[in-house]
Amino acid sequence: MSINEIKEKAKTGMQKSIEALKKDFTTLRTGKVSTVILDNVMVDYYGTPTALNQVATVLATDATTITISPWEKNMLKEIEKAIQSANIGVNPNNDGESIKLFFPPMTIEQREENVKKAKAMVEKAKVAIRNIRKDANNKIKHLEKEKEITEDESKKAHDDIQKLTDEFTAQTDSLFKSKETELMKV
Questions:
Q1: Which CATH number applies to 35-102?
Q2: How many CB atoms lie within 10 A of CB 144?
Q3: Does the chain have fewer CB atoms within 10 Å around its N or its C terminus?
């Protein structure tokens, strides 16, 4: 494995850590409800577990309401059951045509709790990035030990890996800052 391959692999791994962090952030509720909260809800569609958005239209109609309109009216009960068992913190309201989910406005405590969760997610991403750095540095040391690269090449490669690490760590901090602002906005 060459130095460039090691650097490229490290960069790809760090980019994946950023993507995972962004995906984790979508699970946090902000002041405005998002239909993402229902992404993992599976409905029993004639005996087959099916994603909710495959059997109904799911819309955030305002900041605190999600409306679910099934494509087949006989699916209302199944959708209602699936939402209750998903335990997302609200009870479905079935009006015979659609199901509405009313989310109460978030309290300051809930917002602060979500900021703490976001901070933990950022830490997890940073640990992943540092582990990738460690792995890359070990591979570079191995190349140097095997006399495949010079000491100078090794030093430059270590510096490059550190620059990558700093760059991606700064990205996690920046993502956190904007998520924190979003979470605390009333």
A1: 3.30.1360.40
A2: 18
A3: C
What average pLDDT does the segment 161-170 reach? 97
Let me know if the fold of 3-27+107-184 is the same as that of 35-102.
no
Beta bridge partners of 48: 45
C-beta of residue 103 within 8 angstroms of C-beta of residue 90? yes
Q: Read out DSSP for 18-73?
A: HHHHHHHHTTS--SS--GGGGTT-EEEETTEEEEGGGTEEEEEEETTEEEEEESSG
Q: Which is the CATH superfamily of the domain at 3-27+107-184?
A: Ribosome-recycling factor (1.10.132.20)
pLDDT tens, 19-65?
999 988 887 877 788 888 888 889 999 999 999 999 999 999 988 89
- 137, 3 Cβ separation under 8 angstroms: no
For the chain, give every domain's residue range: 3-27+107-184, 35-102
Q: To the nearest whole percent, how much of the chain has pLDDT over 90?
A: 74
